[in-house]
């Protein structure tokens, strides 16, 4: 925080770390962070690194891409491009297009309010992925929700 009384970050809008109680922030104490760069080491030697910005949507974005990679065995680009959803504590489920009609109907039953986004949006994070395996080489995916690009050299 230094001697100037302000923190050099943009975390003041994050619901998970901001308490609405007056005087909640103590001078000289750094705020906790939701940042969650993630590394997945698989038994076959595959190593995947992924991360995103996105406030309280960081967890859901990273989890969804990791599930796509590990459980659905998608390649990195497909895992990043797949539609995402996010459920807020306030009772709202938000979701991107391209879920099946049956999946969308199920999502609408999850919360009091459902928000169907008309297109993919950076609201759902921008997960960027780098993956490497000794036999398969390097692969990457940049999330177009945040103008991401991956180039393997």
From TrEMBL:
A Pfam short name: G_glu_transpept
Keyword vocabulary terms for this entry: Hydrolase, Transferase, Zymogen
Record-level Gene Ontology MF annotations: hydrolase activity; transferase activity
Xref: Gene3D superfamilies: 3.60.20.40
Family statement drawn from the similarity comment of this UniProt entry: Belongs to the gamma-glutamyltransferase family.
Protein name: Gamma-glutamyltranspeptidase
Protein source organism: Methyloceanibacter methanicus
